[in-house]
Amino acid sequence: MTRKVPIIAVATAPGKAGVGVIRISGKNLSAMSSALFQKTLSPRQANLLTLCDESGQAIDQLIAIHFVGPASFTGEDVLELQCHGGPQLLELVMKRCLELGKAEGLVIAEPGEFTLRAYLNNKIDLTQAEAIADLIDAQSEAAVRGAARSLQGAFSDDINNLIEEITQLRILVESTLDFPEEEIEFLENAQARQRLTAVKEKLKALRAGAKQGKILRDGIQLVLAGAPNVGKSSLLNRLAGEEVAIVTPIAGTTRDRVKESITIDGVPMHIIDTAGLRETTDVVEAKGIERSWDAIRLADIVIFLTDAQSGAQQDDLKAQILRELPPKCAVLEFVNKADLLQESSKTAPSEALLISAKTGEGIEALKQRILELVGWAGPQEGAILARRRHLDCIERAAEHIEKSEEFAVNGNNSLELFAEELSLAQRHLGEITGKLLPDDLLGKIFSQFCIGK
Ligand SMILES: Nc1nc2c(ncn2[C@@H]2O[C@H](COP(=O)(O)OP(=O)(O)O)[C@@H](O)[C@H]2O)c(=O)[nH]1
Ligand SMILES: [Mg+2]
What we know:
By secondary structure, the protein is α/β, with parallel strands linked by helices. The chain has 3 domains: 7-124, Probable tRNA modification gtpase trme, domain 1 (Gyrase A, domain 2, 2-Layer Sandwich), CATH 3.30.1360; 132-215 and 387-434, tRNA modification GTPase MnmE domain 2 (Four Helix Bundle (Hemerythrin (Met), subunit A)), CATH 1.20.120; 219-374, P-loop containing nucleotide triphosphate hydrolases (Rossmann fold, 3-Layer(aba) Sandwich). The chain has 14 helices and 12 strands. The strands form 2 sheets. Strands 3-4-5-2-1-6 form a 6-stranded mixed beta sheet, covered by helices on one side. A 6-stranded mixed beta sheet has the order 8-9-7-10-11-12, sandwiched between helices. Helix 6 packs antiparallel against helix 13 (415-433), helix 7 (190-218) packs antiparallel against helix 12 (388-409) and helix 12 runs antiparallel to helix 13. The longest helix has 29 residues, at 190-218. The site of magnesium ion has 6 residues, from helix 8. Guanosine-5'-diphosphate is lined by residues 228-234, 247-249, 253-254, 276, 336-337, 339-340, 356-358.
């Protein structure tokens, strides 16, 4: 996890491109750059150079930049080679670098290893490291902006401010602990009460922001389910704005899951169209239906679609879906084919909304219902991107703050426990920025990065 040898990787995406960047990071790369180009590179300057193979034949003309540590991305020496962007060419350049760097132990980087080094060398904290991966993965403009803000340190600042606030409260408690006779009056101390209230408010705001940030980062798994022919595939096409799924009047047309990612109001929605749920003797369709159930079991939201014209027997199916749902997953019911109803009879069953995948009627309302259900507060000034891990830490910290309050209220001799709870809350917050993080978790986080980052 924390090896010291120099590392190398292609930093750009695989495939043909105008430019392909290879990056090397190590404690001291002067010898390596001399070996590659037979000259000392002036630091932080673009050097137009030719890289040759062992027989002296040119491999590529490229631009090399030598960032001398600690003024670099990783905090070590970094050598950036901007080559022409051909996969074979980059392979040759890599091979040549590995040959010439062999003496110094140059190896191919693990996924995320450059960023890991930046983190270990205190160039960035853990939330910023995660923000780099999230920036690369961002699926909407809002997600890009949120990740960029986290990378600038907005999320870390909020957490550090909160940790500081708790520290101030702890100082107040510890000073009281030295004078046992004053303990009882502790919570009558206006300053202490004020500080505790401030901590709780900040934590609440942090949690709300992180919740929104998680929605923005991960999006929503939305599964379209229902009987055959109710219009699930038509609804997918309507939401996607193109014909991604096959639509026919024949029941059982969709046999496999069809996935499409869209954004609604900046929130990524991963929509899964499924095979219609019914009894069947067709082996292929039965497999498709099994996959529909699998998708339902992993959903954040299931849209249960019925048909305005038929409507019969569907209560059983709905009950069956409700039984299979994972905890925290919600069902939204909609009645499709509103266009086939007479104007006068356009009343949907309770809690359900009439829509028409064909005409687009009710689709806007459907989108808003989804956003309401996930608690999306809309695009917000200063939004950050957050992960499940962050939310878990914040929630654990909140539990300890709540507990701490109980000890303070009980008065007598429990101020030590009060202080202990505060310190536990601090520890969980520290895990977010990586100040107090178990090693195995660190490995897990960085292994999810792409190669060359
Ligand atoms: N009139 C009308 N027909 C629809 C609507 N949505 C779907 N259909 C028709 O219903 C049939 C089945 O649609 P499809 O999307 O394949 O249903 P699925 O089996 O649930 O995926 C097709 O003939 C569609 O054209 C709608 O809103 N109005
Ligand atoms: Mg279908």
